[in-house]
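Re: that chain you flagged

S.,

Sorry for the slow reply, it's been a week of failed gels. I finally had a moment to sit down with the sequence you sent. For the record, here it is as I used it:
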Amino acid sequence: MLPTPPVSLLHHFADLSDPRTDRCRRHELLDIIGIALCAVIAGAESWIAVEAYGHAKKVGLAQYFRLPNGIPSHDTFRRVFCLLDPEAFPRSFAAWVAALAERGVGSRPTIPIDGKTARRSGRRGCGLAPLHLVSAWAGAHHVSLGQVAVDDKSNEITAIPRLLELLDLSGALVTIDAMGCQKEIAAQIVTSGGDSILAVKDNPPHLHEDLQHCFTEALDHDFEGLEWSVARTEETNRGRDEVRECHVITHPTGLRDARLWKGLAAICMVLSRRVVEGVEHIEFRYYIGSFVGTAEEYRDAIRGHWGIENSLHWVLDVVFREDESRHCAGHGGENLALLRRLAISLLKQEQTFDSSLKTKRLRCGWDNDYIAKVLTTTNLEDA
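Prediction finished late last night. Pasting the structure tokens below so you have them in one place:
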């Protein structure tokens, strides 16, 4: 009888369609995915390294995977991940996240959405642009919720709706930068049962101008007669003094296109004053929101949005060296990127070993018991 795999999340990949013909299936699809995931967690950065990990850990892996013909070759790993459906693979990942949520993990999630480019993944001579992915991140729990690739001839505006379709947005708060400030995206989030905070720049006609005018008038009249709140923070860091004021006006008036933004309930302005080496810098940033909340709630969500940069994108570049990845054939780059994000999520959940992610990855390569613990961790309720 085959032992039960230690990775409950692998069960969510069981329904993936195998892209290989019958005569080419010497190795089971779940074996290929499971070994590749373990290898990436333990530090593998190429398909050759994935195969090498498999051979080095064959005895341990045989406890959990069938391995009817031993460890697949690096060419097999590469070919399968290049062929795997890049839409179905993230759906399986999203199913695992949804299963965690059904266990009562977490409360109202805040989901920052942002894009990242693997800078060296393109090949100019072949006319291939670098891989650009849009990811969703559960900041409070340090879990990657999903990703989609941006088409070569498109941008994040078309990718974000596809990513939102993968997510359970019921009760969630989605934060997106100015690229995603689109009426259709705002409507999709609200229709799916979520709320949003969208950064506003010059892209939506009239909106940025109207927000500037609304807050200028409000400041001039001390917000008289308005449903308004403010949250003020002061910080001193590395010789830089900064004061931030987050102003929120609920049920705003005076926006020309307000009726076109489904669920629009509040507008927000963040005023930042920084003093660097005696020189003052002032910056205004504007947002729209679909829920009636306090300035503190808006401030925390806006600041939390940058957690996707610090907790996901920075880790991908520094710890997983994603910018150095050259896996661009077929869907291989996109699917390998998903493995990295899954690896980060699992490593961040394992909290019994208090160390950096880089050291945790090393230990996963050394210690079979520890990687089994990483693979079975569902510690979101304590995150």
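What I noticed first: Residues 91-312 form a domain with the Transposase Inhibitor Protein From Tn5; Chain A, domain 1 fold (CATH 3.90.350).

Talk soon,
D.
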